[in-house]
Amino acid sequence: MARALILLRARRIRALLEKISRLSFRPGHRLNADELPKLLSKATRRLIIVDASHGGGASIASVNAENSYLADGWMVCRLGIDSLGTLTLRIQSAVERDAVIERDAVIERHVVALPSLDLSLFQAIRVDSLEGFVDPFTMANWLAKGAQSGCELFIQWHDHYMICPSHFLLDSQSNYCDVPPDPVCARCLPANNHCQKASLRSVQVTQWRTHWSSVLMSATSVSVFSPSSLNLVRRVWPELPEEKIVVEPHQLPPMATLPDSYSGASNAPIHVAVVGRIGIHKGAAKVLALAQQYRQLPLDNKITVIGTIDINTPNHIVTETGPYDPADLPLLWADRRLDVAWFPSIWPETFSYVLHELMQLGVPILAFDMGAQGDYLKNYRWGRLLKSGSTAAATAVALQELAEDYRMAQEQGSDNQR
């Protein structure tokens, strides 16, 4: 709700409508504990997915997992939360018709309370996103109890919520905190607006991590998607058995190849691509700062946001396309005559589908040296990294140099093919 008000005040109507569409849920009746076994009786294998459904990579991975389980004949129950803080449960079964397993057209939707959800009725729990659930301590106890009752618990490390209620690990000054000693956390959290639930700003971080430790210790596995996430988990919970934490990057479908590129002249204006839904943690303020920097330069550099951005930017420099289909990214890149991608995220990403889609295209990419973006771009031919907190002027120089290096390589490649 607070995020929606911020977007409304900034007149970011397109981004607001997109957020509403992701959080909308058609409510059903309130489900009591006696009704659940009957609803679940039509399937012998049952999975519950816990997902606050904020969109982005967590939701992509969650939906992919749901589809996979349904294809294997499982019943999938999705536990989420609506914009008013109400717990919701969506139940979908798989049915076999003519020896083919497919989704049942009937989807049950219910309003629930955690005490009515007996996890002993399920074979597996998959946790994709926790930030946003109203009572995280009750949620942690419920998950640990379910795992201890014999239900397999699979944790997907899509953000850093179990480390800190500021789940992007941004401090009160909107900088990556790098998980400092607990006394620093105690000073930061009370004034940290990145912890969106105000009541959690008063928690003791040591207590918070101890509480989630019981969930992690009870889990069958904790899946992380980059080496940096693995390092963070091990730093905070060194007692976790090494074999419990699994590094398994997401798999993406093949991206269409980039149409024939063009090579601009050296020192020509560059056209920068910023891709995705760019909120504060994704670097919206960095995009604005770069646009303001470009105002001061003699070159007519431009920025195109393929997607949406949550703050107002000078429209003679920054163009916004609105929501896009990732399959259209190659054509959007060519049609907009883009030169270089900037991935301005200011938090340590856990994976990033957008980053990997750009890498599949083979385009030059600049990002800050942290998290998954740092892990993956270090080994990418056209990846360049900036120190976290670098100025807009340093970013402008790095983008210009990277774009010119890429252009030169493209021109040399064309010469060699003649």
List the helices and strands and how they pair.
Blueprint: H1 2-9, H2 13-23, H3 36-40, E1 46-51, H4 56-71, E2 75-81, E3 87-97, E4 100-111, E5 124-129, H5 136-148, E6 152-156, H6 182-188, H7 205-218, E7 221-224, H8 227-236, E8 245-247, E9 271-278, H9 284-295, E10 302-309, E11 318-320, H10 329-335, E12 340-343, H11 353-361, E13 365-368, H12 371-377, E14 383-386, H13 392-417
Parallel strand pairs: 1-2, 1-5, 5-6, 6-7, 7-8, 9-10, 9-12, 10-11, 12-13, 13-14
Antiparallel strand pairs: 2-3, 3-4
Helix pairs in contact: 5-7, 9-13
Describe the 3D structure.
With 418 residues, the chain is an alpha/beta fold. It has 13 helices and 14 strands. The protein has helices spanning 2-9, 13-23, 36-40, 56-71, 136-148, 182-188, 205-218, 227-236, 284-295, 329-335, 353-361, 371-377, 392-417, and strands at 46-51, 75-81, 87-97, 100-111, 124-129, 152-156, 221-224, 245-247, 271-278, 302-309, 318-320, 340-343, 365-368, 383-386. An eight-stranded mixed sheet has the order 4-3-2-1-5-6-7-8, with helices on both faces. A hairpin with a 5-residue loop joins strand 2 and strand 3. The longest helix has 26 residues, at 392-417. The chain is globular, with a radius of gyration of 23 Å. It starts with a helix and ends with a helix.
